[in-house]
Recover the amino acids of this structure.
């Protein structure tokens, strides 16, 4: 039976939510290579991290995702740093590289996940097989697509979390009860792995679930921003995938 995986960085590790179409599981991993080792037989793995790094301009997929989400939620999609910035060894040098190559700065949010961008980029460049399974998505885009183009409220609020949960349950009834089970086991209870999901990472659970559900519904065929994704200098697609259920 095929499995589908959504992966989100959750401050203490990579959170991977997997579904086989009926059952759901959640695990934490110390590296994206660990995720790939565990789930390399999955039909699709969607990860909330930039794949495909621009050399001298902003990515079209970031721009189109922002436009899709509208002014209220556009800030949830940040501008992906250029490759020279990702490969820089300090924030100052990274910001300088971004400024030199495309004339804009580098947000602290973008710099904060540069180590994760490097991880995913290295895996995909080292293992061509991974590029056929692992693709970039974005939870906010997924949720908005599930809701007919209407983004939910901020995921930092209880109302926003509830909107997201109800959205997932409406799209697929196998989701019913899953989030509560995950919280009871991995947040309030004792997880079977060393790194626990903290209370502050409950929204990451919902994000990873949205990515896994998108992978399941897409079955390998996705809508993309943009519709004709370009590739970076290493042949990696610069795209954000989603499904319109």
């Amino acid at each position: 039976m095929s499995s589908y995986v959504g992966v989100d960085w959750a401050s203490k590790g990579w959170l991977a939510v997997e579904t086989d179409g009926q059952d759901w599981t959640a695990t934490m991993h110390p590296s994206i290579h660990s995720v790939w080792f565990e789930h390399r037989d999955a039909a699709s793995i969607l990860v909330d991290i930039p794949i495909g790094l621009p050399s001298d301009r902003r990515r079209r997929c970031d721009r189109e995702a922002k436009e899709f989400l509208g002014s209220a939620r556009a800030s949830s999609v940040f501008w992906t740093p250029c490759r020279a910035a990702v490969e820089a060894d300090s924030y100052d040098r990274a910001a300088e590289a971004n400024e030199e190559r495309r004339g804009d700065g580098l947000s602290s949010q973008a710099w904060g996940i540069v180590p994760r961008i490097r991880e995913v980029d290295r895996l995909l460049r080292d293992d061509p097989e991974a590029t056929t399974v692992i693709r970039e998505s974005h939870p906010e885009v997924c949720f908005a697509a599930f809701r007919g183009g209407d983004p939910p409220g901020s995921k930092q609020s209880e109302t926003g979390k509830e909107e997201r949960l109800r959205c997932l349950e409406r799209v697929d009834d196998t989701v019913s009860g899953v989030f509560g089970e995950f919280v009871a086991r991995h947040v309030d209870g004792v997880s079977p792995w060393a790194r626990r999901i903290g209370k502050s990472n409950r929204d990451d659970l919902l994000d990873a679930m949205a990515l896994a559900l998108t992978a399941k519904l897409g079955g390998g065929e996705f809508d993309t921003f943009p519709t004709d994704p370009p590739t970076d200098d290493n042949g990696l697609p610069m795209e954000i995938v989603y499904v319109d259920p």
